[in-house]
Design brief:
mainly alpha; Ferritin; two-stranded antiparallel ribbon; about 5% strand
Length: about 170
């Protein structure tokens, strides 16, 4: 958990905030790539709705990346240009589990960033970030006979968790 400051609050500077936002930006790039790949390799009728939902999420993650890159630039730093590594698998259930883990990390980090922005008096930036993380991540996935409404900013993304549990 070195990228997140949940464990112990630290004094934050604008420079450190820019560094942390660049890590978050790399995570958004990772999510874009993962969603594109996962949406294309999930196969079978039971995966169609999930794959379509992942394509939508890839587009949302691009919006998040643009928002974060603007904030990094505002702080006077160059936005990151490389993604965090993307984990893949031939097992669809495992891929969705990776997504769940990544989303949980992302949400935790955004909660920290919002607090850090507020500590610096950067309330407008905190508001922008709130549109990327907690309060913004939601999706609806129909899978089989179930309708899973999710808020990815809660404890865990229900759509992904449901897909992991239900995937044959």
């Amino acid at each position: 958990m070195p990228e997140s400051q949940s464990a112990a609050p630290e004094e934050i500077s604008r420079e450190r905030l820019a560094e942390l936002l660049n890590i978050d930006l790399s995570r958004e790039y990772q999510a874009i790539i993962a969603y594109v790949v996962y949406s294309q390799v999930l196969s079978g009728a039971e995966s169609m709705d999930i794959a379509a939902q992942l394509e939508i999420h890839a587009k949302q993650e691009l919006e998040h990346a643009l928002t974060i890159s603007r904030q990094v630039d505002y702080l006077g730093k160059m936005p990151a240009a490389s993604p965090k590594p993307v984990r893949t698998s031939s097992d669809p259930k495992e891929m969705l589990r990776y997504d769940l883990e990544n989303e949980n990390d992302t949400v935790r980090n955004y909660r920290d960033r919002i607090r850090q922005c507020e500590a610096l008096g950067e309330y407008a930036m905190a508001e922008q970030l709130s549109r990327c993380g907690p309060g913004a991540r939601s999706a609806q996935v129909e899978y089989g006979n179930y309708d899973y409404h999710t808020h990815l900013h809660s404890a865990a993304p229900v759509a992904v968790r449901a897909a992991v549990m239900c995937y044959p």
